[in-house]
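Cross-check.
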Amino acid sequence: MDLNADVGESFGQWRMGDDAAIMARVSSASIACGFHAGDPRTMAHSCAAAAAAGVSIGAHPGYRDLAGFGRRFMEVDPAELRDEVIYQVGALQAMARAAGTGVRYVKPHGALYNAIVHHAAQARAVVDAMLAVDPALPLLVSPGSEAARLAAAAGIPVVLEAFADRAYNPDGTLVPRTEPGAVLHEVDAVVAQSLRIAVDREVLAVDGTHIPLNVQSLCLHGDTPGAVAMAAAVRTALDGAGVAIRAFA
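Predicted model, tokenized:
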């Protein structure tokens, strides 16, 4: 199982998360590309930290929405969205190359990630961007999403992901962050969900429904309060359960 974290989300003097501590416990790092969070200096530091830790780097492009941290849906023209994704991935590729490494996958961020579960035009824009940049780069997305379907049809490698620290609806989608309980904050709850996903290949929805989840990557959010403790506890629990942690890319 791959264990990934969303990182590199500081901006200027505003600090978000402890990337170095998170990277010591994960196998992949999805680094913000400057549109929802991050800036050139943060991107450079994150790529260098990932390279030093031997962690696989992914581009984490989102909507152009620093004020909303990329967590608000935006009705963007698909052609413009395509170009903005190309721009973000390309910027991180340059930073990774300067750090002596490279970008190994693409994982859309926040509201864009959720939109391409069902929004065909935006899903197509993301897939078109990846075809333009490098169709060999894997796309990390939710199971059953429109983006996964379109990417697979276009010959782009698709890696499916579940979340250790997010609540699920009965239909397998994430509970919106605007609703209570959408984010799991208790370490024990995050560990229990991680083990259920990695070992039992399922997740419990908020109504108690058992949802099958055959995924290759498990995500922790670097901006969640207590993220470092959560990552450490999850890694220890997965190691103890005999789950080998390694990057998919």
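The beta strands are 2-7, 28-32, 56-60, 103-106, 139-141, 158-163, 202-204, 210-212, 217-221. The longest helix spans residues 78-98. Passed to J.P. for a second look.
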